[in-house]
Design brief:
By secondary structure, this protein is mainly beta. It folds into three domains: 2-112, Immunoglobulin-like; 129-223, Immunoglobulin-like, CATH 2.60.40.1080; 228-329, Immunoglobulin-like (Sandwich). It has one helix and 29 strands. A five-stranded antiparallel sheet has the order 22-21-24-27-26, with no helix packed on it. A four-stranded mixed sheet has the order 2-9-8-5. Strand 14 (148-151) and strand 15 form a beta hairpin. The longest helix has 20 residues, at 2-21. It is flat and about 85 Å long.
Length: 335
């Protein structure tokens, strides 16, 4: 994989050089990558080892797989045209190389998927130990990671699953309270509405079918919906919903808008996220990063700013702040 990355970085640099000179690329292949570092496969199920060639528009290239030296004498698996089928429980992991035009390579590992005897959802306790839980709380509007572990074979110590080791199904009994964010990454999301939902995780085989007996559930209760929120302009004054503010600013001046959300007890909700929408783009240019929402002055005029939270209040209503900014460029005459 490291070899691919160095090749790909070199390709990107070359692409910028060509673009700067006004040269149109020929579309020649310049890198290859397996879609996964490790492919977990089920016994007697044919699995294709998917890959990508870069750039994606590349044409007229040759692909060649390099198999282990004992391929042919090892009867625990078959490999045909990029498709591997494990036929015996005695199969041991193998590394397979892929070659593009005798110039670029990548490597993946094939492993036989072993299913756990049981699974559970875990969380660290006060002693920083992972403890199996069936109930938990989540703040309004935030993403919750389902930390699933499994017990394998004779080992009584549960372990987390490896990336791409299993497929999952997630079910929430009340998606108005807890919505499914990503089955692949075992993530759910609180919508911000107060209440609870029973969330069930099922381990699936390579075809996406739930495996009997491999499921676990947790009851998630939403706490801390947004009760109050306000924004500040460059930490100079508070921006309130429905108000209009007149400002005299230099062209190119960059102002930061910080939004603060609070729960019913008056404590700040640190992870409440907001998007910024402008009624027109002639007055400000906006961008968002970890430090806040930035507005860069482009010209005089009036613009309505909407700060839309991804969270909700206790009733489930989306939280937002709308205000109007009237900007006069410093040194310009009023019309």
């Amino acid at each position: 994989m490291k070899k691919f990355l160095s090749i790909f970085i070199m390709f990107v640099c070359c692409a910028f050089v060509f673009a700067g000179c006004g040269v149109v690329g020929s579309g020649d292949a310049a890198g290859i990558q397996f879609l996964q570092d490790v492919f977990y496969v089920d016994k007697n199920v044919e699995t294709h080892l998917d890959y990508k060639v870069y750039p994606l528009t590349a044409k007229n290239y040759n692909i060649r797989y390099s198999l282990p030296a004992n391929y042919g004498s090892d009867t625990t698996y078959r490999f045909v045209n990029g498709n591997v089928t494990v036929t015996d429980d005695a199969f041991r992991p193998i590394d397979i190389d892929i070659n593009l035009n005798d110039a670029y390579t990548d490597t993946c590992t094939v492993r036989l998927r072993q299913y756990p005897k049981s699974i559970g959802i875990y969380k660290k306790n006060s002693e920083n130990e992972d403890t199996k839980i069936t109930n938990d709380s989540v703040y309004g509007g935030l993403v919750y990671a389902l930390n699933v572990k499994g017990i394998f074979g004779s080992n009584s110590t549960p372990r987390f699953f490896e990336e791409n080791e299993f497929n999952y199904q997630i079910e929430s009994t009340n998606q108005n309270i807890i919505a499914i964010e990503s089955e692949r990454n075992l993530l759910v999301r609180s919508t911000g509405k107060r209440g609870s939902s029973l969330v069930t995780v099922r381990v699936c085989d390579g075809q996406g079918n739930a495996v009997s007996g491999l499921s676990t559930s947790i009851n998630l209760t939403v706490v801390d919906p947004i009760d109050n929120t306000f924004a500040t302009f460059d930490n100079r004054f508070v921006l309130r919903h429905g108000e209009t503010y007149e400002l005299t600013l230099e062209k190119g001046y960059e102002a930061v808008i910080n939004v603060r959300s609070f729960n019913e007890e008056g404590f700040i909700i640190n992870n409440a996220e907001y998007d910024c929408y402008l009624s027109n783009d002639s007055v400000f240019e906006s961008r968002i990063d970890d430090l806040g929402i930035f507005l860069v002055v482009k010209g005089s005029g009036e613009v309505k700013v909407t700060l839309q939270s991804r969270s909700s209040d206790a009733s489930g209503k989306p939280v937002k702040i709308e205000f109007v900014l009237k900007v006069q460029i410093l040194g310009e005459n009023n019309p």
